[in-house]
Design brief:
Layout lengths: L1 H24 L2 H25 L5 H22 L7 H20 L2
């Protein structure tokens, strides 16, 4: 169950990065609303991370949480914000995913 909470927390980390990107692109009320979404997603992500670390090792949980956020944010950047998908970006993103999966398998 705590692994599921950790994955959801990582997805909310991606969501707060997305809101931050949208807040940067917009102005006035829209920007404030996206910033509000950023704060809400940040709170939910941190809350779920705290819940998950009640039973998971903090080092592993934090690495997996940031890894999910990093992978998700890079993919959002590529597919939504039109950032380049160069060979090396995809290569290192792949190694990050392999590392996250590896941490899950070697953690008790």
């Amino acid at each position: 169950m705590n692994w599921l909470l950790l994955i959801i927390a990582g997805l909310f980390e991606v969501a707060f990065a997305f809101c931050l990107g949208k807040a940067k692109e917009t102005t006035n009320l829209d920007s404030k609303l996206w910033f509000g979404g950023f704060l809400a997603c940040l709170f939910i992500s941190m809350f779920l991370l705290i819940k998950a670390t009640k039973t998971l090792p903090i080092g592993t949980a934090y690495a997996v949480w940031t890894g999910i956020g990093a992978v998700g944010t890079v993919l959002l950047g590529i597919f939504y914000f039109n950032e380049p998908a160069t060979f090396w970006r995809v290569f290192f993103l792949s190694t990050l995913i392999i590392s996250i999966v590896g941490l899950k398998f070697v953690s008790a």
